[in-house]
Structures are given as C-alpha cells and as structure tokens.
Amino acid sequence: MTVSVRPQENRSAGPLLVEYAAASFLPQGRLACINGQNILFGSTQGAVFTLNDTAADIWRSLQGGVPVQAISDEMVARGVDRQEAYGYVEAALRDWERLGLIQPAPPPSPIATERHLCQVVAVPGVSVRILYPSTIAFPAATVFRHLEVRNRPADVLFHLVEHRERVHLFRDGQWTDSCCRHEIPIMIKGQLLAEVLGHSEYELALHAAALFKSDRTLLVCGNPGAGKTTLTLALIHAGFGFAADDVTLLDSAGHAIGLAFAPAVKSGSWPVLGEYFPELVRSPIYRRPDRKRVRFLVPENHVAPVPRPVGWVVLLCRAQNAEPSLRRLEPTDVLDGLLNGAFARNKALSNSAFDALCQVLRTANGYCLTYSKLDDAVELLKAACR
Fold it and tell me: TM segments (predicted)?
C-alpha cells in the first residue's frame, strides 16, 4: 500500500504542538530517498508511504532525536513563517500518529488509582487485565463486563494511554495499536481475539456464530454481511443460548467453544432488533475501521464457554423475496462452509484439525437456510433444532 503523507499548510500553532513537545514519541519506520522520491517504510504495519521534502526533513529530525519544538524552530531559522512551520509539524505528527508511524514511549508500570479503571476479563486460554484511563473507561469497559472475572491472576496486561485524539494500546509494555475514542471496544476486541488465537488450545477457529440448544451447538456460517449477528440475536430472543456471534473454536474432539464477545450490531439491523432488545437503541454508537456504525449488545445471561458437540451447521443464503427453506447439505458442502474464513494455527489444516472437522460432519446435520424475513428463518431453525 502506498499512502502520500502531506503536511497541511496554514494550520494554527498552539496546544497541539505543545502536547507533542511534552510527549515522547518513537519513530517506527525507515526513510530513503530513491530517484528523488522520499519513501518511508512503516516497520509495524509493513506499509509504504511517500513524503514530500518538508515532511521528510521533519521525519529525519524526529528520528535524530531533535525535540519537536526545535524542529519547528529550525524551519523558522530557514525562513519559514512561524505559524506555517508549526502547522507543518503539527499536521505531520498528527498523521503519523494516526498511521502508527510514530508511537508513544511505553508507559511506566501502571498502578490502578482513582485515575484508572482496572478490569480483568477471561477468554478461552488467557486472562487479561485491562487498565483504562478514567476519562475513557466508560462506556467502553461495559462492552466486556460479562467477561469479567474476580480473584484470578492475569496472564497479560493491556494498558490504554490517551494522547490527544488517539488512544494507544500497550500489551505488556509494548505498543500494539491505536484508535479514536469511538473505536476503543473494537480495538480491544481485536487484541483479545489475537490473544485467544495465540494462547488457546484449539484445532481450528471458525468464522461462525454459535448458539446452543439441549447442550448441543448450532453453528451459523456465512460471508460478512450475510446476517449472522442479526439472526444470532433473533435466535437468542427465541430461547437459544448464546455462545458466539463471529468466531468459534473447534477442539480436537470436534466440539465447539464460542468466543462470547458482545455482538456488534450494524446500523441496518437496529430497527428490527430494537423490537427484541429495547436496550439496544440506548447503547453507545461506535465505528469499526471500515467506518460502519455499530452498537454492542452485551449478553444478559452469559455462561462460561464450555465445549459442546456440534448438532447443526447452517449456511446462510439471504435473498430478497426468497421463499424460506431449509435444505439438507452433503458433507462436502458443509465442509466448504466451515472452512470459509477459518483460521488454522499454523496456517495449514493439520491432520488433527481435519479429524475434528470429520467428527463434526459425522454428528451434525448440515443445512442451507434460504430466507428473506427474519421471523421465517427463526421458525425454521427452531423446528430443526428440537
């Protein structure tokens, strides 16, 4: 990816530059001039950026340890208007922080005080302590309240640090990611998922929602936008137990363990799901990296994730004005649906993962669910999962 970073002119100087001058930032990239073009390689995300000459000079000074205030002073000494110099430096630092090209220095060992909120959550394979500055803790922390545990030591520490418009996430003292305030739960959820995939014992991570009925798991598979979250919440309202709305782990016995993150409901589903869950319309609105607006619906009756045999696998086929139907699938079609978007620990399907999938195919009924109206889909699945 190539992105052009061009500092904006005529920005007013003031508190923003002062804040950057007071902070300690570490450049995360290498700059080279090739055939007259300034090329910056971002070492954290592996992306390539182009800089104009002014931005390149600012980068070299920053990488050389020149204080932020001194960088603008050097530009003024070369004849640049002071306001203009401040504007260039502010714009460059703001853009580079947003892109992860400069990162704040690791925070000191944090201590939970009245200025912080400490939350310990458990996900399969790992317990995580999340330390929020009190100014940004709410409502973000409420998205993970159903995962909270007490009197359990944490394996990993997430420390959130706020700087101007960005919130930076440090994992055990190492910078991991940054976001805007309205993206905090999405950023934490993504890092928690990374912890699960790195620590939990599983054979395959399936891109599937999971519900349970009579101690058996219903897996709902479909491409992004197929309606997994909306259907999952409608089934919860109809009496199914909640296990996951997006990612489900498969263990060596072919049993499913859901990752019970709070479902993120996109704006298109707010009206219909608001009838089932009136609290949804009162939930804060967040933005995903793709700019879609979501509200999180925290499960009311969350149960600790336990492995359950898979009883049903359903592939979604939502189409406008379609006649509702639930068609039985051949094992190969079910296998294709399960592998769509699946993640294997070593990037390749191992023998034990294949054996686990075969166990699912032996025990589960596979269906293709075609529907247009949500109520029709719910009724068909209620009948099939008795």
Answer: none
